[in-house]
Amino acid sequence: MLGVHEFILRRLWAAGRGVISHDSALLVHQLCDINPTHVHLTIPTSYRISRAGGERYSIHRADLEPEEITRIEAVTLTSIRRTLADSVGSVPDYLVRQAPDSAADRGAIRPAERDELTDRLSRDLVK
Q1: Which DSSP letter does residue 25 get?
Q2: Which domain of life is it from (predicted)?
Q3: What's the pLDDT tens digit per position in 7-19?
Q4: Is residue 20 within 8 Å of residue 77, measured between CB atoms?
Q5: How far is CA 13 from CA 2, 19, 71, 97, in A?
Q6: 35-47 in b/e burial notation, b at 16+ Cβ within 10 A?
């Protein structure tokens, strides 16, 4: 499992333009029991990477809003809300369903937000 320092270094591969996202953000946020096989980075849609080493990454492209980005111990990553939305369809449903409860139990989100996210995830996972 990657530690905080490794995630900081991995983000630098994208010249600091990417943020840790998807499965990797679930791990950093400690939202569920996941062990990603690649580091997931979301980079701006207009940014092109021409560096070696891309096989270690799952690259996603999106133009994130400021409220969709957060920092934990110097790791820049997607917010809990954005992480959950990104994870639907790419992470097993049972892991995605664990995440809102884990976040609320740790005090990372309010119980009302947990309920809202759980409802939204239930709708998204049914599609």
Answers
A1: H
A2: Bacteria
A3: 777 777 677 788 9
A4: yes
A5: 15, 11, 18, 31
A6: ebeebbbbbeeee
